[in-house]
Amino acid sequence: MTNILLACLVASGSVGMCRAELNDYIPDEPPSWATEEWVEYAAHIVASEAGGVPVADKVIACTMIRDIERGWNPWNLRKRWFGWGTPDRLDREAVRQALINCDDIPSYKFVGNVNDTRVWLRNNMITNGPHDIYLGNNAAVVGIRW
């Protein structure tokens, strides 16, 4: 998703001369499925899955987008993500930010709460650590890397 624009600026008084500069990051166009309706749909999942851990909002949104990039239907994510909550502004913003850039978020096979992690361990879906833990005031979100 990295797209850097090179701009050629005409140097004053020098015809045909220019200098290339790196401008600010300019995101690619969002995918056709990334409508405002989809942002709202995804924000409901983020609201529930992050549940009290706002620092994990973008982690979850990026993991959902990577799921879609791996072939999941963007409108059928609830077969993989079971949470459904009432989103707030931060949940929606996390989804919008994830559509622009997820380079700062690790790639996870699974993201969920501590109880989810216990189920994944019990069902031999993951091994016992190490894992990334995102903490909120009264909750935690666990990221299981690939």
Q: Layout of SSEs?
A:
Blueprint: E1 6-10, E2 18-22, H1 36-50, H2 57-69, H3 89-100, E3 108-113, H4 114-122, E4 132-135, E5 140-145
Antiparallel strand pairs: 1-2, 3-5, 4-5
What's the SSE pattern?
Answer: EEHHHEHEE
Count of helical stretches:
4
Shape: globular
Please, what is the average pLDDT? 85
Largest sheet: 3 strands, antiparallel
Q: Please report which band the strand proportion falls in: under 5%, 5-15%, 15-25%, 25-35%, 35-45% or over 45%.
A: 15-25%
Class by alpha and beta content: alpha+beta
Helix content, binned percent: 25-40%
Task: For the record, give the distance between the C-alpha atoms at the N and C termini, rounded to a whole number.
Answer: 20 Å
Whole-number count of domains: 1
What is the count of β-strands?
5
Strand order of the largest sheet: 3-5-4
Radius of gyration (Å): 19 Å
Question: Residue ranges: pLDDT <50 for 5 or more in a row?
Answer: 1-26
Please explain how this structure is put together.
This protein has 146 residues and is α+β, with helices and mostly antiparallel strands. It has one domain. 34% of the residues lie in helices and 18% in strands. It is globular and about 40 Å long. The model is unreliable at 1-26 (pLDDT under 50).
Features:
three-stranded antiparallel β-sheet, alpha+beta, disordered N terminus, 146 residues, 5 strands, single chain, 18% strand, two-stranded antiparallel ribbon
Structure summary:
By secondary structure, the protein is α+β, with helices and mostly antiparallel strands. The chain has helices at residues 36-50, 57-69, 89-100, 114-122, and strands at 6-10, 18-22, 108-113, 132-135, 140-145.
